[in-house]
Predict the 3D structure of the following.
Amino acid sequence: MLKQIWDRVSVRSYKPDAVADEVINEIIEAAFHAPTANNVRPWHVVVVRDADTRAHLAKVHQWAGFCADAPVVLAFCGDPEKSEHWWIEDCSAAVENAMIEAVNQGLGTCWIGCRGADGGDMSREDYVCSALNIPKHIRVLALVSLGYADGPAHPKQPGPMANVHDETW
Ligand SMILES: Cc1cc2nc3c(=O)[nH]c(=O)nc-3n(C[C@H](O)[C@H](O)[C@H](O)COP(=O)(O)O)c2cc1C
């Protein structure tokens, strides 16, 4: 298995060290190399470094507090006017690519779900849109915290290989 896939775990404790702009750009370029339905590429990413804004985002819900400590938070957004049916899949693939490239750059990440409507409470998405001045027609898939991990990675559970079905279920 690709080492970066094996090594990726959710990081919720960060050193204060800044992440270089070039590194952030490489992570976003990796995100934008993801597959995308009909090659529409409906992705947008808001890069948040400002401490006050991160502290505000950290209050989006009770599982996002570490956004205040991560030096960078990326808001992954999609444009449903470009891809009504597939923006969620396209943005999810982009997030995963970003997380794998972050490991490659020696960084840790955590996916912070905040999508509204079917994915959860719409007020969370509205909260992020308002905090980041995101236009009304754009949807927010997730926040991703980014930074150098403070402490060792937690152990990973092995994959549920019993859930693999050979030829038929
Ligand atoms: C759609 C989605 C939403 C998530 N939302 C949160 C979240 O709000 N806060 C958080 O701390 N972790 C969140 N996670 C991370 C999961 O808790 C984590 O991936 C899972 O526990 C497995 O651990 P691992 O990432 O270390 O393998 C989310 C992950 C996904 C895929």
About this structure: The chain has a mean pLDDT of 96. Strands lie at 43-48, 72-78, 108-113, 139-147.
